[in-house]
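Budget justification aside, the reviewers requested a transparent look at the raw inputs and outputs of the sequence design task funded under Objective 1. We therefore reproduce one unedited record. The lines immediately below are the structure tokens for a 269-residue chain.
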């Protein structure tokens, strides 16, 4: 099954196809998870902290035909770990094509919906010990569950292009979204993408996200028209309001239109 995971001091962040738990077979031949040690493999019914993504096979088209590596149904996941390294809670953000199309002909193209997380930080300096902030990307629809309320849904309607998002999550009692936004970091034009890089919090409880824009400077050319630029964006930590977003330069990718002549075009090997 496909997986993409990175660790942080706040927990573990993943993009996952299939089922995921913290039960694993150790060198002693036994299976260990936060509930203890068993002689047999854990099942979904015996592992209390897990998430079942329910990966979906496409109903048609040229992609996602194998349920083992299909991107459809892949969720972005945060696990909360205690000081002993045990899993306390799991929070999963459901991801699907924005229009629900599963045959590759929908608004998000043949690959459909997809999401993952690249950065995570806590609010310990601000005294909010159960709160975390995540930065990730989405193609399609991503829904952030909210305890006692309607999930917060963010949509990227483009085909094959990514939008970053930033979300604050309360990891107490299984997790609940505080806010989630794409403000200041998404690119609305088809074919343009922005990529999540990292996220940090300040002592005042605000959020700063690092992302990379991939825009175009020459839409008539198939080569040499992509331009990348770094971006920092600040959000109010209480409600996710955009404070500012700053781009820091850009570099074109592709053939150099004015290359420097090689003074020695036939060097001796």
């Amino acid at each position: 099954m496909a997986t993409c995971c990175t660790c942080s001091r706040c927990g573990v962040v993943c993009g996952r196809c299939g089922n995921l738990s913290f039960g694993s077979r150790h060198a002693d031949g036994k299976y260990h998870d936060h509930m203890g040690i068993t002689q047999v493999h854990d099942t979904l019914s015996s592992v209390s902290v897990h998430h079942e993504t329910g990966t979906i096979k496409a109903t048609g088209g040229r992609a996602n035909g194998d349920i083992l590596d299909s991107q459809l149904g892949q969720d972005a996941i945060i696990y909360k770990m205690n000081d002993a390294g045990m899993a306390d809670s799991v929070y999963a953000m459901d991801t699907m094509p924005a229009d629900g199309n599963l045959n590759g002909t929908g608004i998000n193209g043949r690959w459909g919906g997809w999401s993952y997380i690249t950065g995570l930080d806590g609010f310990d300096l601000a005294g909010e010990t159960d709160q975390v902030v995540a930065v990730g990307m989405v193609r399609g629809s991503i829904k952030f569950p909210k305890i006692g309320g309607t999930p917060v849904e963010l949509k990227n309607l483009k085909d094959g292009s990514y939008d970053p998002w930033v979300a604050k999550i309360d990891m107490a009692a299984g997790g609940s979204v505080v806010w989630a936004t794409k403000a200041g970091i998404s690119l609305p034009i088809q074919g343009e993408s922005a990529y999540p890089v990292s996220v940090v919090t300040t002592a005042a409880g605000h959020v700063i996200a690092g992302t990379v824009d991939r825009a175009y400077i020459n839409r008539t050319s198939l080569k040499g028209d992509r331009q990348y630029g770094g971006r920092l964006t600040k959000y109010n930590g209480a409600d996710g309001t955009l404070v500012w977003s700053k781009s820091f330069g850009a570099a074109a990718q592709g053939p150099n239109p004015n290359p420097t002549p090689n003074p020695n075009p036939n060097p001796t090997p």
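The longest strand covers residues 128-144. Confidence is low (pLDDT under 50) at residues 1-20, 254-269. Computational costs for records of this kind are itemized in the attached budget.
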